[in-house]
Amino acid sequence: MKYEVVMFNMSNFSEWEKGVTNRNRQIFTQLTLNKKVSQIVAIDYLPFTLKRALKNYFSDIFKKNDQSKVVYKDKTSQCSIIQEDNPKIYHLSTIDLLFGSKKAQKKIEKILKIISDPSLTRIIWSYFPVDTFYFKIKNDLTVFDAVDNWIYHSSYKRWKRRLKRNYKKIANKADIIFTLNENLKNFFILLGRNENIYSISNGVDYSHFQKKDIFFDEKIGSIIRPIVGYVGIIDFFRLDFDLINYLIKNHPQKSFVFIGPVWPIYFQKIHPQAKKIRQIKKYPNVYFLGHISYDKMPYYIKQFDVAIAPYQFSLFTKYTSSLKILEYLASGLPVVSTPIAGADNLKNIIYLASDYPTFSENIDLALAENSSQRRRLRREAAKKEDWKYKVEEMMEIVDKKINEKK
């Protein structure tokens, strides 16, 4: 049995090409290596606001891509083939959801009719809870992989009611639901979902963080050691800036390096928490290096002496799971984290702290106890969580469910 996977993404293909990485991208990458998958149609994040539609239009539809062959194009959509075989990979971008769900559904069905092989078993695989029209597209199986709970994401406050309705629809209609932690699984159980729901935690591209090439960038290479580092989106509903401020003040002899974009940018001026990040930037031992591509990330992480995951406790973080902790461990780094969802699974290999003084003390403890043996144990723990094993587990579940349906 060979599969066609029609994937509704939580980001754009062009964003992945620029170095953005997330669970969606990692699972997509592993599916391209699966022998049962003959074709993947990667559908960009479907814009439902004018601002996002304009971004998608100019970056993925209007813009000509000389690296791929366009197989369909009209005023609001474009589909290109970016890999010819083993498997075939199509990139589809459309802004038709801006004009309604039916419009988007008809357009995608029209394009799929052109590019699909009817002999393949079609799996609809979604990361997009803002709409659920894709369940109506002809398929053999539907999968929803829940990344975070968008109801509690600050960017989706205006669509909270819509998301609540759609999560209920997903709970009722998806053949399989994957979640990244037990809290998200329980969220769907409370919506009435009791079967074919699986908690599969985030993984790590282990080999990616074993790179031994020499790469030097003065932005981090000239910073005084020891370096306490953080990698990821720097936002006000994920990170505990009071904790970060406390740590910086109590470790003046250490350098604090933050890699990643401050998001959303306009929050730096208008958000009530904005003054906290401005205060942090004033410390002489603090460095914000901005966005670094995923390809270069291993070289930067290796410059850290200890990595931190200073997440706050909130309804949003309750349903999240840090990709970065496993990437730190794959690099052999000691990690100090607040006890976010999923961190308990790693409590024997990382330092957990529920209060500010303990977190601060654990930074010194992590540095003092670091050794070649501990670095080896961290890498071994991360290796067991490779994305390859996560997707193998997912596909075993998919195979079983398709056979049951047939």
Description:
The chain is of the alpha/beta class. It folds into two domains: 3-203 and 386-405, Glycogen Phosphorylase B (Rossmann fold, 3-Layer(aba) Sandwich); 206-383, Rossmann fold, CATH 3.40.50. 37% of the residues lie in helices and 18% in strands. The protein contains 16 helices and 15 strands. The strands form two sheets. The protein has a nine-stranded mixed beta sheet with strand order 3-4-5-2-1-6-7-8-9, sandwiched between helices. A six-stranded parallel beta sheet has the order 12-11-10-13-14-15, with helices on both faces. The radius of gyration is 22 Å and the shape is globular. The protein starts with a strand and ends with a helix.
CATH architecture of the largest domain: 3-Layer(aba) Sandwich
Shape: globular
Oligomer: single chain
Task: Name the CATH homologous superfamily of the largest domain.
Answer: Glycogen Phosphorylase B
Attribute tags:
single chain; 406 residues; alpha/beta; Rossmann fold; nine-stranded mixed beta sheet; six-stranded parallel beta sheet; 37% helix; 18% strand
Task: Kindly summarize this structure in a few lines.
The protein folds into 2 domains: 3-203 and 386-405, Glycogen Phosphorylase B (Rossmann fold, 3-Layer(aba) Sandwich); 206-383, Glycogen Phosphorylase B (Rossmann fold), CATH 3.40.50. The protein is built from 16 helices and 15 strands. The protein has helices at 13-17, 23-31, 50-61, 101-115, 160-173, 182-190, 218-221, 241-250, 267-270, 274-281, 297-301, 315-318, 323-330, 356-369, 372-383, 387-405, and strands at 3-8, 37-43, 69-73, 77-83, 88-94, 121-126, 141-146, 176-179, 197-199, 227-231, 255-259, 286-290, 306-309, 335-337, 351-352.
